[in-house]
Amino acid sequence: MPCWRLAHLETELFICADKLCEQASIQEVRSLRLELDTYIAVNPQFLKSLTPVEPERNAPETVKSMCRAAKCADVGPMAAVAGAFCAHVGCEILKTSEQVIVENGGDIFIKTDKPKTVAVFAGSSPLSLKVGIVVDSREMPMAVCTSSGTVGPSLSFGKADAAVVVSPNAYLADACATRLGNEVTCAADIERALEVIMRVPGVTGAMAIVGDVCGAVGEILLKTL
């Protein structure tokens, strides 16, 4: 599959698809960014809140989807923003391509005709890039989203090297990855945190890594890399 990168303001995507769709993908990113900026200008709480907020009745559908996901995960709506860009661009490309992979800072939207293995980056953990999640997305797009308390600029109240959630809903996977990461302050928290996140309807599976300790639950297949 042809692959390309694009960047617009804070968004940096790596995309693979059956067809090279550079112009369409950057247009979608710019359009969604403008849509979110316009909404935030009138509703700044959407940007700042660390807890769920209710969208305005006339809010764009992406905003409503982010708010729904945030409510399910009990986090702020911006916890779903990376997943939103992945899904928005991925769904647009699927209008003309049968396969697509969109990666956005550790969050992945994927629809392929064969199972793919997603390597899990966990910073300084000895398990980083040593374990992968096998994603079978032949029937529908799937999302694999990762949060971390030790890697990257994303806000997390936990200490997980990697908190990963798999779901057909990229908004939900992203928001729940944030919640899972918040719940894990040490390795002893992993089992309880995974139980919490698996109670969210729509979550297929989850995994958390702290140091050399890894836990996973749900309908996911792990693979040693």
Short structural description:
The protein is of the alpha+beta class and 225 residues long. Helices cover 33% and strands 27% of the residues.
Question: Care to describe what's here?
Answer:
This protein has 225 residues and is an alpha+beta fold. Helix content is 33%, strand content 27%. The protein has one domain: ApbE-like domains (T-fold). The protein has 6 helices and 11 strands. The strands form 2 sheets. It has an 8-stranded antiparallel β-sheet with strand order 1-2-3-4-7-8-9-10. A hairpin with a 2-residue loop joins strand 1 and strand 2. The two termini are 22 Å apart. The model has no long low-confidence stretch (mean pLDDT 95).
Helices, strands, pairings?
Layout: E1 3-8, E2 11-17, H1 22-42, H2 45-48, H3 61-73, H4 81-93, E3 100-104, E4 107-111, E5 116-119, E6 131-135, E7 142-147, E8 162-167, H5 170-183, H6 190-198, E9 205-210, E10 213-218, E11 221-224
Antiparallel strand pairs: 1-2, 2-3, 3-4, 4-7, 5-6, 6-11, 7-8, 8-9, 9-10
Helix pairs in contact: 1-4, 3-5, 4-5, 5-6
Rough shape? globular
**What is the terminal separation in angstroms?**
22 Å
The helix tally amounts to 6
Helix/sheet category: alpha+beta
The largest β sheet comes out as: 8 strands, antiparallel
Integer average pLDDT? 95
DSSP strand (E) fraction? 25-35%
Biggest β-sheet: strands ordered side by side in the sheet: 1-2-3-4-7-8-9-10
CATH architect. name = Roll
Residues in helix, % = 25-40%
Poorly predicted segments: none
Radius of gyration: 16 Å
Q: Please give the CATH class.
A: Alpha Beta
Number of strands: 11
CATH third-level topology: T-fold
Structural domains: how many: 1
Q: At the fourth CATH level, what is the homologous superfamily? A: ApbE-like domains
